[in-house]
Amino acid sequence: CLPGLSTKLFIESMRQSPDKILIVGDGCSISTQPVAEVASYYNLVMITYSAGSPALGNRKKYKTLFRTIPSDFNYNPARVAVMQHFNWSRVAVLFQNERSSYFSLIADNFLDEVKSIQNYSIVAFEGFRDGVQQYIKNLK
């Protein structure tokens, strides 16, 4: 998951023969984003097998990117269904903060999904950069 290295390798590959019409990869969303954005300028199709960032669904920005998996937004209705099944009325959302906003986008979408159910309360909505232990301790 090194976006700079992925972009460098992509550019180096484009300079070599044969001409490319399709590339497969990257498996990590944060590395896929810059390569997929540049690939469209080469009119090069990119297929990714595990990059689930919701940001990659932006068809204006990633014109030639196709995924074999859905966006990670698709897991949020299942998370809400688990809450409903167990009659949980309180929810804490802890997510990792990173430059790409990958997890915060999913967390924000989850909150939108939670708002669709009755009788719930959000006891925490926290992003963290380092260890999550302190945040879990604060919930207790």
Give the topology, please.
Elements lengths: L2 H13 L6 E3 L4 H11 L5 E4 L16 E3 L8 H10 L4 E7 L5 H13 L6 E8 L4 H7 L1
Parallel strand pairs: 1-2, 2-3, 4-5
Helix pairs in contact: 1-2, 3-4
Please explain how this structure is put together.
With about 140 residues, the chain is α/β, with parallel strands linked by helices. Helices cover about 40% and strands about 20% of the residues. The protein contains five helices and five strands. The chain has helices at about 5-15, 30-40, 75-85, 100-115, 135-140, and strands at about 20-25, 45-50, 65, 90-95, 120-130. A three-stranded parallel sheet has the order 1-2-3, covered by helices on one side. It has a two-stranded parallel sheet with strand order 4-5. The longest helix has 13 residues, at about 5-15. It is elongated, with a radius of gyration of 19 Å. It starts with a helix and ends with a helix.
Defining key terms:
single chain, 140 residues, two-stranded parallel sheet
Largest sheet: 3 strands, parallel
Main sheet: strand order: 1-2-3
**What's the number of extended β-strand segments?**
5
Mean pLDDT: 85
Which band does the percent of strand residues land in? 15-25%
Q: List the uncertain runs.
A: none
Helix content: 25-40%
- Based on helices, strands and strand pairing, what is the structural class? alpha/beta
